[in-house]
Amino acid sequence: MKTFVSDGVELAYIDEAASSDSGNRGAILLIHGFASSVDMNWIGPGWVDLLTREGFRVIAFDNRGHGESQKLYELGDYGAPLMAEDARRLLDHLGLARADVMGYSMGARIAAFLAIRHPDHVRSVIFGGLGGNMIRPMAGSDMIARALEADSINDVSDPVGQTFRRFAEQTASDLKALASCMRSAREPISQEMIGALRCPALVAVGSKDEIAGSAGELAAILPQGKALDITGRDHMRAVGDPIYKKGVLEFLNERP
Q: From CA 61, how far away is CA 223, in angstroms rounded?
C-alpha cells in the first residue's frame, strides 16, 4: 500500500486504475468499517476487482487506527468528522476534485460527514451497513470498548462485545487503538443534516442487520435516496453479497 500524511497522521491507501478495456467512469472512494481494513472490507470480498472491471478508478484507505495506518490512542484522535477529513485530504492528495463514495458501517458515518461538509467532493454516496440508526446515538459503545480491552475474549460475557472482539482478533487489529476509536466523541448526525444532502444516495442494509436500522427509513429522508435490502444477511455477512454488488452497480449506472 502507498502512504500519505493527513494532518500529521500516516495513512495507508490503494489507488487502482480501471481496467484498460472498460473505459473511464471516474473515481470511487471506499471507506471501510470499524475493526476492518481495505483488505478485509474491499479486496477480499471482491469489490476492488469488480469496480475496476466496471471502469472505475478505485481508491481506498485504512482508517486511522486500523489496518496498516498509524495507530493512535487518544480519544481526540478519532471521530467520524475527523476521519472524514482524512478522506477529503486523500482526494486532495490525489488531485481528485470529485468521486463517488461508498462507506460501510462506521465508514458510512464517515462518508456522511464527508458529503455534509464537502458536498462538492461527492458525486454520489452509498451508505452500506447503516440505515436509520445513522441518525440515532450508538448504543453499547462503552460495552464494546470494554470487550476490546479485556485480557481475553473468554472474559467477555456480552454477545455483542464478543462479536466485536472476535472480529477484531480475526483482523489482527490493535485492540487498544480500536477501544480508543470506539470511546471517542460521536458527533450526532441529525435528520436535517441528512435531508440537506443533494447528491444521489443509496442505502444498502442486510435484512437481518440488527445494528444498522432500516434502509428505507434513511433513504426516505434523503432527497435523492434509494433503499436496497440485502436479503438474508446480517451486519457482518452483507459486505460481499451479490445483491449488494448488483444494487451498487445499478445505482452507479443510473446516477447522473
A: 28
130 occurs within a structural domain? yes
Structural domain that includes position 45: 2-137+188-254
Whether 55 maps to a domain, the answer reads yes
pLDDT in tens, 190-224: 999 999 999 999 999 999 998 899 999 999 999 99
Are the beta carbons of 163 and 236 closer than 8 angstroms? Answer: yes
Query: For the purposes of burial, counting CB atoms within 10 Å of the CB of 8, is it exposed (0-12), middle (13-18) or buried (19 or more)?
Result: exposed
For residue 202, the domain's CATH number is 3.40.50.1820
pLDDT in tens, 13-49: 999 999 877 678 999 999 999 999 999 999 999 999 9
Residue 152, domain member (yes or no): no
DSSP assignment letter at 39: I
Phi then psi for 24, rounded to 5 degrees?
-125, 110
Strand ranges inside the chain, DSSP E: 2-6, 9-16, 27-31, 57-61, 99-104, 122-128, 201-206, 225-230
Structural domain count, the chain: 1
Residue 16, domain member (yes or no): yes
Residues 6+ apart with CB under 8 A from 83: 63, 64, 110, 113
Helix (H, G, I), strand (E, B) or coil at 97: coil
